[in-house]
Structures are given as C-alpha cells and as structure tokens.
Amino acid sequence: MSYSRNGGPDVNGDKLVVGLIGYGYWGPNILRNYAQCADVDVKWVADRDERRLEKAHVASPGSLVTTEANDIFADEQVDAVLLATPISTHYPLGKSALLAGKHVFIEKPLAASVKEAETLVEMAERRGRTLMVGHTFEFSPAVRKIKDILDSGELGDIYFIASSRVNLGLHQKDVSVIWDLAPHDFSILFYWLGEEASQISSFGRSCVHECNPDVAFVNMAFPSGTVAEIQLSWLSPVKLRRTMVVGSRKMLLYDDTESVEKVKIYDHGVNVTVEPGSYGEFQLSYRTGDIVSPRLDTWEPLLAEAQHFIESIKTGTPPRTDGLSGLRVVRALERAEQSLMMNRTTVPGSSEAEWGDFLEIEAPIPAMSGGR
C-alpha cells in the first residue's frame, strides 16, 4: 500500500531523510515533532494497519506510507529510521535498519533483553551509526533542572528517592508493568545520580491477567549509598507521576502532572547535635523552612529529543541517551523482572504459586560511560 508523495519536500537537498516505523500510540507524536524540524524530511511512514496509514497520510500528506518496513530499509535516500513499535520488534527492526546502514532511533526500551541490547550497541559502534533511545524524560525541563540542583549539592547527600508512576491502564498484552513504565524511572534515576543500581529487588502481583503483572514495587541501592523505591501500576484511581528526593540538607518534590510548579524544594530536614559532656548522646531538631519552586524552561521534550538526534547524526557525537544508556536501562529492567517473577503473587484461586522466595538480584556495577 502506498500513496503518492504530492507536495513532499525535496529529498535531494540538505535535509536529513527519515522513515518512521509504527503509527500506533506513540508514532503520531514522533511524526508531529519531526515534522516541525526544518532540516528533516519524513519521507516514509510504515505500519501494518492500513487504517493507521490513512491517518498518517492525512497528518503528513508529503510522506509515502507503506505496510512493509523493508521499503524504508531499501531506500538509499533514507538516512535514519525511527522505531515506535512494540518492544518485541525493537531488536529485529533495529538490526535490519543498522544492516541497511541507517542511523536508528528506538523508543524506550532499547530491546527486550540485555543480549539484544548489547548486540544493537555493538552493531552501531562497528558500523559507525548513531543509535539513540527514546528516554524522553531526560529532555524534560523539570528533569534537567533537578539534575542541575543535585549536581550543585543544594540538597546535600541524597538519602533516598521515592517515585510513583501509576494510572488506570493502559494494560499491555506482551510485557509486564515493569517493562512498560519503569524505563522512565530507571533512565531518570541513572541520569540524576550518574550511576547504576548495585542491587535491585522487586515484588508485585498479576491482578487482571493471570500471567502479566500489573502492579510492582521496585527497590534499589546505589554505590553512593542512595536507596530508591519505584511504585508501578496500571490499576490506580488517579494518575500519579510523582518523585520525592530527600537529601541531608533539603528535600525536593517533582510532580509531572502539575501544570505549574512541577518542582518544589523544601528547606526541611533534621539537625543532629551532641551535647558537651553527654558521653555521645545526641539531640534531634527538626527544621521546617521555606518552600521554593524554581523557574523552569518551557521547551517540548519530544521536540528537543528529535533535534538532539538530528544534531548527533550531523556532528557524529554520541547522543545523551545513546545505546549504552539504553543498555543500562534494559539491564535494570531484566534484573527487576527476574526478581518480580520470583516474588509475585497472583489472583487468589490461580493455579500459579502465590509467593516465591524473596529474591534480590545483584550484579557488578559497570562504569557509567557514553552520552553522559
């Protein structure tokens, strides 16, 4: 299936020619943002569903549409491929794109396993192609501001971070709630702290579909001493995107659902004093000070992400969310999923065992490198 490319931009100019594969839930957002980039030509949109392609043709009448991804891989004019497809397809499609000599952008997570992610990273490096992962929150003004605050030391030593990412739906058929929602939190935490978790444990349950966990609690410990907890669920009466960061000097609250004041810094804490001559006895005093909401920039994260991918291709510099960044997240997802499978409980009456032995997954801590 294809439509004529009436009124399409000149692909023989200086524009970066891209093809988008996947026009389901997230594909329209990617198309919209790349269409805003003056130095990009979205030549192709591919999807197996012809009804979606009809919508894509309306949204971008200058683009060719096809049900065959190979049409994009075979087009020598295409410089880069954008993947917004189910997780299970990331590796085969990403591999095909790299074999065709294309730069590749893949929506989170990079792949469905560490082995697949490692292969994509190695292929991109060997072929000199740019590989970038859609960790969009790393381009969010609020997340970038918090990174600056943490790096400045304003909060002091980071004691712990607690995050809630819950809503009613969307239940996925092929992946657990960890693979669906946790990539956001893992990428944010690794970006903020500049390190991977040395320990990961998780537990949860399958409430709606017996074989697919839809609620999970993930606990992490980091080499710096920081600990973190992530609450994930597709079963919540309200949508929460809230993260609390507690430091030795100050505390911070990040609520992505707020239209204004997404970030608040609390001059709250506990002071410990030792009385002279008290043989080491200490007293605690609780401090409640000002609450400050820093000014945030107002750029669109998806557009910033698209522009960053384009710039990385043109300059040959690794993107911030490069393949190694994606690999770190997949490594954490796999460890968390392994722990969840051992520890989850199921709906009462299920044929599955209700509880396994509590499992904590530990692994050597790789060095943070690439795109940082």
Structure write-up:
- This protein has 372 residues and is an alpha/beta fold.
- It is built from nine helices and 16 strands.
- A hairpin with an 8-residue loop joins β8 (199-206) and β9 (215-221).
- α5 (114-127) runs antiparallel to α9 and α7 crosses α9.
- The relative contact order is 0.14.
- Residues 1-12, 349-359 and 363-372 have low confidence and may be disordered.
Kindly summarize this structure in a few lines:
The protein is α/β, with parallel strands linked by helices and 372 residues long. Helix content is 31%, strand content 27%. A hairpin with a 5-residue loop joins β9 and β10.
What is the global morphology?
globular
Strand segment count: 16
Q: What is the rounded Rg?
A: 23 Å
Contiguous low-pLDDT stretches (5 residues minimum) are: 1-12, 349-359, 363-372
- In DSSP terms (H or I, runs of 4 or more residues), the helix count works out at 9
Please outline the major beta sheet.
Answer: 10 strands, mixed
Can you write the helix and strand succession as a string? EHEHEHEHEHEHEHEEEEEEEHHEE
Given helix and strand content, the structural type is: alpha/beta
Task: Note the gap between the termini.
Answer: 42 Å
The amount of beta strand, in percent, is 25-35%
- Average pLDDT score: 89
Which percent range fits the helix content?
25-40%
